[in-house]
Structure of Stage III sporulation protein AF (Spore_III_AF):
Amino acid sequence: MEEIKGFVITLVTMLILISAIELISPDNGMKKYIRFVLGSILIAVMISPLIKLIGKGEEELTSTINNYISMPKEDVSVSSTFESNKDNRNKVVMKNIEDNLNRLLKEKYSDSEFKVKIQGEVDMDNIEYSIYKIDVGVKDKGILKVEQIIINEEESTEVSSNSENVKNKKEIIEYLKETLKISEDKILVYRLN
């Protein structure tokens, strides 16, 4: 880092010096020769770090690597870091699967909106995933049918749940079952309000 800082300071100093010399030089035939010499000096300054690198590049590279290897390591548990990364990867992959399912369902059933929530696990070693449960919230676009309202509770013995009033429920379950290769009992489709 110090070498870069030194190079930048030298380069800026040379640019200021060259500009000052050009400003005080006379406007005659000598000006083009002065510019040539100053340009040559500027090129030499710019190439000097490259020449240093080529000249002693191998020794510097090996010494830098050795310094890095001999640096003291922090007391960070490798297993805890690995587990933390594994949990984060699991969440990211599950989120990506949720987003992709939302997109696929919106493409297939454009008259509805979906909110997919997946509970599962990803095995990155074998590149496999296992899904324990999928909750799919469905909201129909446009105007919804008004459900029958029964005022007298004695006449109504059966209360309809949110999952019974979902349009295309069986199709959605079959689509998810075929797409994800999971059993039907792991899929819950319900209506979003």
